[in-house]
Specification:
Blueprint: H1 2-33, H2 53-61, H3 64-95, H4 101-110, H5 116-130, H6 136-140, H7 147-158, H8 162-170, H9 175-186, H10 188-203, H11 207-212, H12 220-223, E1 228-229, E2 232-233, H13 235-255, H14 257-266
Antiparallel strand pairs: 1-2
Helix pairs in contact: 1-13, 2-13, 3-7, 3-10, 7-10, 8-9, 10-14
Length: about 270
């Protein structure tokens, strides 16, 4: 019994240490943003006296609310589009049988292995012809199909009880009705976890928005670049904007935390 308790205590200590190591950079980000401008390079673990001058300097330099709104629009629309496409594609791959099904599935998932830099130029040329350069829709459009999302949802749907689908078909429901009234309600934890993954990925994207957008119609990640110059970096305002960039993601995680835990628990159950 003593050995088991020691193992349990050791596991908790290890988890606590790992959590502290993961959370410390986020704490230091907020701590730096709350220091006085003259103390921004201080190594003191506690920002005292607390000052919001860095946030005021950041608001004077860039349109913080506009950047947050643009970034949220891009991330939310991209995540929602990827979820919808992945839901329809994974339902077809998991619930239907058609010629060359496995080959098509492998080819579809294989696109995940293609680096984005390979498809960047064709996407840029297409957006130029469509007149969508320097627009938020132009940032979202090439990201609407995610092979990773299809792969994850297809694995969940493959373990979905086929008896429920068959019973719904006997009741006279269409495939569209079965998807939204039978399958989706039972996949809420997986969809919530995947939504957060897709949202964070789109929220943190820098390279593609830098190619499509100009500074006048920008997102948070490009706005941070405004505080970097040849004469030096303005760390205080930069940390202030970076801390604001973290808040929507943290809030989204807190709201959907229960669904994320359920997704991990159910992923090992059939």
């Amino acid at each position: 019994m003593t050995i088991d308790r020691l193992r349990t205590a050791g596991s908790h200590v290890l988890l606590a240490a790992t959590a502290i190591l993961c959370a410390f950079p986020i704490y230091w980000l907020f701590a730096t943003s709350l220091r006085r401008p003259e103390d921004v390079t201080s190594l003191s673990p506690v920002p005292w006296p607390i000052s919001f001058a860095n946030y005021g300097d950041a608001a004077d330099k860039v349109d913080v609310l506009g950047l947050i709104g643009n970034t949220f629009f891009v991330a939310a629309l991209s995540a929602a589009g990827q979820l919808l496409v992945a839901l329809l594609a994974s339902y077809a791959f998991a619930m239907y049988t058609f010629p060359f099904q496995r080959l098509l599935y492998l080819a579809f998932v294989g696109t995940w292995l293609v680096p984005f830099q390979v498809t960047m130029l064709p996407n840029y040329v297409l957006l130029t012809k469509l007149g969508l350069l320097n627009s938020l829709i132009g940032v979202v459009l090439p990201t609407l199909c995610s092979a990773l999302a299809v792969l994850l949802l297809r694995q969940h749907m493959a373990g979905f009880p086929k008896e429920l689908v068959a019973a719904a078909k006997i009741d006279g429901r269409s495939s569209w009705s079965i998807l939204w009234t039978v399958v989706v309600p039972n996949l809420r934890p997986a969809l919530a976890a995947l939504a957060i993954l897709l949202f964070i990925n789109a929220w943190n994207e820098y390279f593609w928005p830098a190619v499509v957008l100009r500074q006048s119609n920008s997102v948070l990640q490009l706005g941070l670049r405004s505080f970097m110059g040849t004469e030096g970096d303005h760390w205080g305002p930069m940390m202030a904007v970076a801390s604001l960039a973290c808040l929507p993601v943290l809030l989204m995680y807190l709201l959907l935390q229960r669904h994320i835990v359920n997704a991990f628990v159910r992923s090992g159950l059939k």
